[in-house]
Task: structure prediction
Amino acid sequence: MVEETKINNELRALRIRLDQINTRLQGIILERADIVKQVAKVKNVNNLSVFQPSREMEILRELNNSNLGSFNLKQIWGIWRGIINANTAIQSKLNIIMEKNIKKNNRDLILHNFGSINNLIEDENAIDLLKKEKNIDSCILVIRNDSTSLLDIDGKKLSVIGTLPQIQSNSEEPTLYIIGQPDQFFTEDDTYLYKIKIEKKKLIDKEYLSTLLQDYLDDDYKFIKKLSEEFYLLAIKDKVDNGFNNISIIDEIQCIGRYATPIIIGDEVE
Result:
């Protein structure tokens, strides 16, 4: 009985301290929300998108470079995602369009990132639905990394602005791409996405094109993906203006987006 009382007293003392911290945390979260409301006004006046994934990645990188204590990066980011999603909803609920019959693991990835606080919309013609959206500043499209919808992106009115997951294990190729209004903000580590069209009479395989491009891009090269017989997707670390003019097999190249490069961690941090 004495031992039980001692344990209860110790727990009570610790919980009092936790309650005090909770009160301080609530005050800080409310203060942050007030600033977010001011941010929303600035965005509205300047016709800026509600959702800005480059800003989210800046926060994530700061966390990755800080002391996480007893947490790993994925755990602490899970806490921050709840705060970010709630603050985004203060500005405006996001309409998140995704392709019909998306696989469960991809759906779970989207839900885990954006939470249930936003509007999730499935549609067979997801890209067309986004193009028709009147409130484009609060609407995004999430597609697979091999989706043919990428062929409809021009990088001007609609652009690849982000990827999921934001924390990746080893592979540099994202699972999902986020499409929306072009992001006007740059980060210290951006990836540029290009759509490459190959002349029909000179169709080649991905491995040959990859080797060919690496000779031109050196360390800027990240990955290349085949979308169709004629089109490939190229991810590089810098913007290329006229770097491919001397490659005769390339019929056309177009920058279709730019996104803050995800953080890559090893499997041991899972």
The longest helix spans residues 2-45. The two ends are 42 Å apart (CA to CA). The mean pLDDT is 89.
